[in-house]
Amino acid sequence: MIIFRLIGESFRFALDALRQNKMRTMLSLLGITIGIFTIIFVFSAVDTLRSKLQASIDKLGSSTVFVQKWPWGGFGDYPWWKYMNRPEASLRDYEGLKDRLEYVEGVSYEISANGRTIKYRSNSVEGGGIRAASQDFNKTWNLDFQEGRYFTDNEGKSGSPVIIIGADIAEGLFNGQPAIGKSITVMARRLTVVGVFKKEGEDMMGMSQDKNILIPLNFAKGIMDVESERYDPTITVRGKDYIALEEVESEIRGAMRAIRRTKPGAEDDFALNKSTIASNQLDQMFGVVDIAGWVIGGFSILVGGFGIANIMFVSVKERTNIIGIQKSLGAKNYFILLQFLFEAIALCLLGGALGLLLVYLLTLALTAGGFEMILFWKNVMLGVTISVVIGTISGFWPAFSASRLDPVEAIRS
């Protein structure tokens, strides 16, 4: 209780001192306010962008592996010359994996093409994306429907002229009317709509079914070369939930090497891509941005810290005789030290609070302008922690020097 009383009295002394010197207090706050604002704004912007990109990556699935020609990356020291002559994922690879793999929920072969026109009577939608996939596509991806259903086994095997469309495509063609059972034209072919994907909204990586259409792979074989490199053929493998991803990946690698008859010791001529690769690349990229945020804001906080220390030395000088009176009445050294230390911390906390308020107001303005930005609670706590640390460091030496004053000399000053 004595400790709490001392802390309370120290804070009251500190607040009285701040109130008596309002202009000096406001000027002292500026450095800390600008520093906290800079660091927390940068971190909030980075964390918002990171969370949106991570949400897009999470759609790939934590237990999903993509068998492709090119490994994900494509920047820095990416050795593209090693991968140029690799073969694309083929139907032969797909059939071989389907027969060999045991630790998987589903295996699908997929191709995609962009910039297509979809028509229904006088209505048309430009720039639609076409995806053609084998029957297990619904086992390798999580699909939600707002209308209709997925392809039946007979429709997939026989290559029936059926199609599933995205929510934006449905809205553009049918203006809110039911889409199921209607015939639309794609690549000069008429297909019957059997399903409409649930609206997802656009994400940071453009991974949305809203502007896509899906057709059976066996139907696509009649209108395009499904093994052509320009359609980015991909084999998607989704492992069973209770099997570790490393085991699934190892099984796929062994099966692919056997299918392609790769010699022992030879390098793989395929890439096994997974969501963790993209997540790690995100962490590396945003790690650099975080360091830049610390450097930019750190200089402002450093200047603000020197400003606080300078003001605290002035405050000690002004109140030297009061310190002498307090000591003559029995005040201990640690009470004097705490009094000035808490004054410095209170000053920094006030500056930090103003900085956080500015960040919050800016996030509201950006969100109202169409760019959603979030001030995460961890960043608020970071701002408070930085303020306390800077206040402690900046105020310690002035507070220590005040606590060591001789009471007689202090009163005479």
Question: How would you describe the overall organization of this protein?
Answer:
This protein is of the alpha+beta class and 413 residues long. It has two domains: 2-56 and 280-412, no CATH class; 87-269, no CATH class. The chain has helices spanning 2-20, 22-58, 91-100, 137-140, 153-158, 167-174, 217-220, 245-259, 275-318, 320-328, 333-368, 377-403, 407-412, and strands at 64-68, 104-120, 123-133, 145-148, 162-165, 183-186, 189-197, 212-216, 234-239, 271-274. The protein has a six-stranded mixed beta barrel with strand order 2-3-8-5-7-6. It is elongated and about 105 Å long. The model has no long low-confidence stretch (mean pLDDT 83).
Q: What are the low-pLDDT stretches, counting only 5+ consecutive residues below 50?
A: none
Structure class:
alpha+beta
Overall strand count: 10
Q: What order do the strands of the largest sheet run in, or round the barrel if closed?
A: 2-3-8-5-7-6
Topology pattern, helix = H, strand = E: HHEHEEHEHEHEEEHEHEHHHHH
Helix segment count?
A: 13
**Range of helix content:** 40-55%
**Largest pleated sheet:** 6 strands, mixed, barrel
Described by the principal axes of the CA atoms, the overall outline is: elongated
Give the total of domains: 2
Q: What is the gyration radius calculated from CA atoms?
A: 32 Å
- What distance separates the N and C termini? 34 Å
The average pLDDT value, as a whole number, equals 83
Task: Tell me the fraction of residues in β-strands, as a range.
Answer: 15-25%
